[in-house]
């Protein structure tokens, strides 16, 4: 019997006020997969993530997360947004920011403060940032902040981790550190990560889903300059990697 997909998107179309952003998108992500979502600016990546998170509803098609509608599956999902939803100079400690990831996700009687603190410390340890717990959020470097946002997403021990450009504001070394960390998480959740850097993420992910209103999946070793040029309409850094790993449903072309 095959496993219930972590993400199953079927024949999905979405428009903002009549402007079509996603057209007949299909995407299956199996439990344990590490999938990159790439595409040009305004291609619809963040919109697709918001639909998978249940923050938007499609006009056409279905989405299931671990077999459930997205809102019902919210407790299984950790999310690292593109822009953190709080001002950097807000006087709040790292540990509190991480514990905020548990808001609204607890049992009906709520967690105790002590449980929140312990969970926050565990999540910070998982991303190698225990030493930052007492620091003010505004005093962190870009790379440190990304680790803390990752800890906030991991604090509920999600089965699915969704990240929207987690390394957009960090240098290349910090980018590598974050992706090494993601690849080494134990237990490692299923991961869907948006990135602009197709060459870089190809070294980490099993599969790349290319989105530009329609979606096409490729195993990482099938990516070449011609394909990327076609997708972006421009030349990017070379992309060719041989990676072992599962690639179910790969190389489907949606035209
Ligand atoms: N709330 C909204 N209302 C109307 N249009 C929107 C809204 N959010 C996004 N859009 C539009 O939808 C399109 C897709 O946006 P989206 O943010 O999903 O793309 P993206 O691929 O994530 O882009 P980027 O790589 O630049 O972050 C864009 O043209 C954007 O202007």
Structure description:
The protein has a domain at 7-84 and 158-232: Rossmann fold, CATH 3.40.50.300. With 255 residues, it is α/β, with parallel strands linked by helices. It is built from seven helices and nine strands; from the N terminus they run βββαββαααβαβαββα. The chain has a six-stranded mixed sheet, with helices on both faces. 39% of the residues are buried. The chain has helices at 45-52, 94-99, 113-126, 142-154, 172-184, 198-201, 225-232, and strands at residues 7-16, 19-29, 34-38, 60-65, 77-80, 160-164, 190-194, 207-212, 214-219. Mean pLDDT is 84; it is low at 235-255. It is globular. The longest helix is centred in the middle third of the chain and has 14 residues, at 113-126. Strand 6 (160-164), helix 5 and strand 7 form a beta-alpha-beta unit.
Write the layout of secondary structure elements.
Layout (H helix, E strand, L loop, with lengths): L6 E10 L2 E11 L4 E5 L6 H8 L7 E6 L11 E4 L13 H6 L13 H14 L15 H13 L5 E5 L7 H13 L5 E5 L3 H4 L5 E6 L1 E6 L5 H8 L23
Helix pairs in contact: 3-4
The structure holds adenosine-5'-triphosphate.
The site of adenosine-5'-triphosphate has 10 residues, from helix 1.
Organism: Marichromatium gracile (Chromatium gracile)
Pfam families: ABC_tran
Family: Belongs to the ABC transporter superfamily.
List keywords for this structure.
six-stranded mixed beta sheet; 7 helices; alpha/beta; three-stranded antiparallel beta sheet; disordered C terminus; Rossmann fold; 255 residues
């Amino acid at each position: 019997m095959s496993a219930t997909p972590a993400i199953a998107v079927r024949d999905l179309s979405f428009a903002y006020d009549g402007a079509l952003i996603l057209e007949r998108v299909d995407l299956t992500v199996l439990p344990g997969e590490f999938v990159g979502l790439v595409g040009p600016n305004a291609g619809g990546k963040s919109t697709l993530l918001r639909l998978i998170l249940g923050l938007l509803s499609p006009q056409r098609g279905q989405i299931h997360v671990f077999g459930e509608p997205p809102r019902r599956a919210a407790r299984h999902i950790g999310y690292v947004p593109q822009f953190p939803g709080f001002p950097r100079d807000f006087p709040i400690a790292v540990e509190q920011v991480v514990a905020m990831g548990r808001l609204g996700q607890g049992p009906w009687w709520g967690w105790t403060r002590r449980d929140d603190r312990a969970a926050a410390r565990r999540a910070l340890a998982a991303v190698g940032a225990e030493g930052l717990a007492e620091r003010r959020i505004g005093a962190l470097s870009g790379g440190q902040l990304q680790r803390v946002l990752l800890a906030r997403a991991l604090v509920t021990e999600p089965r699915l981790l969704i990240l929207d450009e987690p390394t957009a504001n960090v240098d290349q070394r910090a980018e590598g550190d974050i992706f090494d960390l993601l690849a080494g998480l134990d237990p490692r959740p299923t991961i869907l990560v948006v990135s602009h850097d197709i060459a870089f993420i190809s070294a980490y992910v099993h599969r790349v889903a290319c989105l530009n209103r329609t979606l096409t999946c490729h195993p990482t070793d099938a990516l070449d300059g011609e394909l990327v040029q076609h997708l972006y309409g421009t030349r990017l850094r070379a992309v060719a990697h041989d990676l072992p790993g599962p690639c179910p449903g790969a190389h489907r072309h949606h035209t």
